[in-house]
Amino acid sequence: MKTGNRYFVRAWTAVMFGSATALAFGVPLHLVQGALRIGMFLDIAVTVMLVADVVVRWGGSRSFTARNWRWLFVDVVAAVPFGILFGPTPLELLRLMKLARVMSVMALWWRQNTPRWNTFRLLYSGYWIALVVHWLACGWMALRAIPSESLAGQNTYLRALYWCVTTLTSVGYGDITPQTEVETIYAIIVMAIGVGMFGYVIGNIAHILANLHPSRARYVETMERLNAFMEYRGLPSSLQDRVRGYYGYRWEKRLGFDESEILGGLPPSLLADVSLYLKKDVIEKVPFFKGAGEDLVREIALAMRPVIYMPGDYIFRSGEKGQEMFFIGRGEVEVLSRDGRSVQATLHDGEFFGEIALVLGHPRTASVRAIGFCDLYALDKETFDRIVARNPEFAAHIDAMVRERFGSPG
Prior knowledge:
The protein is an alpha+beta fold. It has helices spanning 6-33, 37-58, 66-79, 82-86, 99-112, 117-144, 151-168, 181-210, 214-233, 237-254, 259-263, 268-283, 294-303, 355-360, 381-389, 392-406, and strands spanning 305-309, 314-316, 324-330, 333-336, 343-347, 352-353, 367-370, 374-380. The chain has a 4-stranded antiparallel beta sheet with strand order 1-8-3-6.
């Protein structure tokens, strides 16, 4: 579809989905009941939309691959109003090829709605089951050769649908039974389909329930293994509580996922884009990085690794040699005096600390301690120096800032 407006594309896709669904329900009814007035109006409206779809989707195309030709054939044939031109004719069934578009749209929605995968799977199954039940009911009506214009003919679909549902679900009250050999054979086929459909529905529901909370299942499994290990090794209760607290925090805030592990499977370009989105705002708050180019910020974002600190953990202590700087993604830390007796500052989400050590490598002049659970990003000096060495202009910028703030680094 040659358009850059994603909202238009989504709306038009929904319209085409509805049009193809209307065909799927309307064509079989038209064949077994004839042209009802409301059906004729619906057929005209659907045909207009499908013709418009051919124009919108293919009007601006200049070249076609073999795949494009196949889809063009599907769209054009589905747009031909065989019922309007020739009356009820089996040629109308060709229009149901448009359901191939429905399948491709569903596959796209499935990929785009992974967080709601279970809900979508239920809707997907319900949609196709409803179509199959409708088609089978229409087939039963065709075998019964119901007059199309009589009042009985108008109400027969409901009874055919009733027979189809009771047969598919193996209830079969026996109030509607096959009267001919052909109807008997058809009933046997419907029963066989019902067995497969019943198994498919039960299997889907069982699978959905089993995977309703996969991250919770992983967390429970991990905790069971940890508890067994800690009991076996005889860890003190206080240490066991800290381990459980750490994994409990990871489950509560991150659903048990390790950021490095999840993002590590992405291709380099996509990994860089995601890392830049997650960390760019924090990076740009650091005075040393102001004015850095997009490529440099991207490199720094890729080099930052996520770390977690628990309540009361010292991130570093006064006098230690500085090898890293830290960015606060979530949580609070307190900056302590050299003697550790007073709090000089409290830092929150989006703030940073330890940047002097990153540039100069001087010993820490203060201690920093986590107040609660903290999600931080760490950037080590070795990686930072390697990045700066590849960017001479930025290296000169850093050198000028160091001279301005701290005097000559020499």
